[in-house]
Design goal:
SH3 type barrels; five-stranded antiparallel β-sheet; 4 helices; 17% helix; 26% strand; rod-shaped
């Protein structure tokens, strides 16, 4: 008994003063107990109880650690993955759709210019106006499309270029480079294309190029045969010479006309 509480020592001292352990006053433990007064009995009982508590107390009661027993750590709950079915059945809120950018206002599309409608003569169904030439050495020009109409003048240059601007039966309304004209019978006209030189001493070149060599010179008023034409040049021939001249130098072809 390594540890005796102060209460037990006080009880033991009180019993000794009362005659505890003296053989002359009592015999045996029972006699001793009976010989004790009530005060000694109370002190001995309290000491016995304190002794029993000290012996039977758990080991941690004698420790000076004031923290006391530590609670047993609880096991962390396991994370259980949700089943695929539950995940699939969960309500999915779609992300808000960003409105598309407002399209820029397109400029008004201008319709492509329609190609110029080709007007055709009611008799021949050929384009009107068109260029022809005088077939013979002379041709009467009348005021109206019949032999009964008066003759206003006479064309006297074979191959003279003319422009047809109207049709009626066997008659064609024509005009020359000055805009003068009238009605001529169709038999006096030819489909051979000719031109008349409008400038004095026009240079005929070997190629449609101002840097090309000069082949010959054409006098103003000369009637020449018209060949192929490009965007700005035409090939002409006459009096044994053949070369290229600018369109602006001749009459008998439109500025935008292309000939092969």
């Amino acid at each position: 008994m390594g540890h005796i509480s102060p209460s037990f020592r006080r009880a033991f001292g009180s019993a000794k003063r009362s005659g505890f352990g003296r053989g002359s006053q009592a015999s045996g433990l029972g006699g001793i107990w009976r010989g004790l007064g009530w005060r000694a009995k109370a002190v001995l009982g309290a000491g016995a109880a304190a002794l029993a508590f000290t012996v039977l107390a758990p080991a941690h009661a004698l420790s000076n650690d004031e923290t006391g027993p530590q609670p047993r750590p609880e096991r962390a709950p396991e994370v259980v993955a949700a089943p695929a079915e539950a995940e699939a059945s969960a309500t999915v809120t779609p992300a808000p759709v960003r409105p598309a950018a407002r399209p820029a206002q397109l400029a008004a599309v201008q319709p492509a210019p329609a190609a110029a409608e080709v007007v055709r003569g009611p008799v021949t169904r050929l384009p009107v106006p068109r260029y022809v030439s005088l077939k013979g050495n002379e041709g009467n020009v009348r005021r109206g499309p019949s032999l009964s109409h008066r003759i206003d003048w006479v064309f006297r240059h074979a191959g003279m270029p003319l422009r047809v601007v109207g049709e009626f039966g066997h008659w064609r309304r024509v005009e020359d480079r000055d805009g003068a004209g009238g009605w001529v019978h169709y038999r006096l006209l030819s489909g051979v294309r000719t031109a008349i030189v409008q400038q004095e001493m026009v240079e005929l070149r070997a190629r449609p190029d101002l840097n090309a060599g000069v082949i010959a010179m054409a006098e103003g008023g000369a009637i020449v045969r018209l060949g192929e034409c490009g965007t700005g040049w035409c090939q002409i021939s006459g009096a044994g010479a053949k070369g290229w001249v600018e369109k602006a130098a001749i009459w008998g072809v439109d500025a935008d006309e292309i000939r092969d």
